[in-house]
């Protein structure tokens, strides 16, 4: 565990140095922006975000008013980690779950460094591990242990159940990092509800092998989540092209869904060093906050 934390700390320090040298302005953090609470009302000024208009007060005929906010010092950051069987896809040395765990670990250290409360929800098709938010280095170690805990109750996937559980559990507006491959269906409604209530960041883990299946003839394909083997003819009817097209269209669908619902979205490939995609996340969050 000490070696693991040292490795994650090196990533976190590198990330902070790169962010400080490349980003300008006050918003050099992934974690600023969501921890806000209502403060007061003031008259509307040109350039104000239309989403901050207080329509009930403005409708009384005394001019348009917008809500102002102050930073919440007890801001909470949650990591929603999908631990289902499909996350085990990848090379021997680097699977989607490995990439996701490292990212969650580095961001945990970064969030604790900035004084945020950090919590963890690991989920397959049932609750795997729940750690309620807390501050400080002990909490960081507790979260990292929870992230890298190898024991799982189930291989199944239920993103709908995961998001519904989070809606009921997390009452106060927080930053939620969803780390998953999103190989599931019927999760859009609770995910949209989470986006309305919280500041949502979707990190989709991908691996080349899942969308680039070679034409090998008849081969056995093991469904890790279902626990059974199916024989498929990869050379029949453009099977490989259909697989690649299916994965591509599903990722496009998720990307567009996130854009429509003001969710920060980033696709992260297992071949990438995690510093590069996390820098993209810094830039994405920085751009969003300046626009808002």
Q: Care to give the gist of this entry?
A:
This protein is of the alpha/beta class. It has eight helices and ten strands. It has helices at 2-22, 55-58, 96-113, 136-147, 159-169, 188-197, 239-260, 275-291, and strands at 36-43, 65-71, 76-82, 117-123, 127-134, 175-180, 199-206, 218-223, 228-233, 264-269.
Model description:
With 292 residues, the protein is α/β, with parallel strands linked by helices. It has helices spanning 2-22, 55-58, 96-113, 136-147, 159-169, 188-197, 239-260, 275-291, and strands at 36-43, 65-71, 76-82, 117-123, 127-134, 175-180, 199-206, 218-223, 228-233, 264-269. Strand 6, helix 6 and strand 7 form a beta-alpha-beta unit. Helix 3 packs antiparallel against helix 4 and helix 5 (159-169) runs parallel beside helix 6 (188-197). The mean pLDDT is 82.
């Amino acid at each position: 565990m000490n070696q693991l934390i040292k490795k994650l700390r090196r990533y976190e320090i590198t990330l902070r140095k790169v962010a400080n040298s490349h980003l300008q302005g006050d918003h050099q953090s992934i974690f600023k922006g969501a921890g806000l609470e209502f403060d007061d009302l003031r008259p509307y000024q040109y350039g104000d975000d239309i989403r901050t208009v207080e329509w009930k007060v403005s409708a009384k005929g005394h001019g348009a008013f917008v809500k102002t906010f102050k930073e919440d010092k007890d801001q909470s950051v949650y990591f929603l980690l999908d631990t289902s069987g499909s996350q085990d896809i990848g090379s021997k040395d680097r699977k989607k779950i490995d990439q996701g765990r490292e990212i969650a670990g580095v961001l945990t250290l970064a969030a604790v460094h900035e004084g945020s409360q950090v919590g963890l929800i690991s989920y397959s098709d049932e609750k795997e591990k729940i750690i309620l938010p807390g501050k400080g280095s002990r909490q960081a170690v507790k979260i990292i242990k929870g992230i890298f805990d190898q024991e799982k109750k189930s291989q199944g996937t239920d993103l709908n159940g995961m998001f519904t559980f989070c809606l009921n559990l997390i009452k106060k507006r927080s930053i939620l990092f969803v780390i998953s491959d999103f190989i599931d269906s019927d999760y859009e409604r609770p995910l949209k509800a989470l986006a309305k209530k919280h500041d949502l960041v979707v990190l989709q883990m991908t691996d080349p092998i899942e969308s680039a299946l070679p034409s090998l003839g008849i081969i056995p394909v093991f469904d890790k989540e279902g626990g059974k083997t199916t024989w498929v003819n990869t050379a029949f009817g453009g099977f490989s092209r259909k697989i690649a097209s299916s994965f591509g269209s599903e990722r496009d669908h998720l990307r567009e869904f996130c854009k429509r619902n003001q969710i920060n979205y980033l696709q992260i490939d297992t071949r990438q060093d995690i510093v590069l995609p996390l820098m993209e996340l810094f830039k994405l969050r920085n751009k969003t906050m300046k626009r808002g």
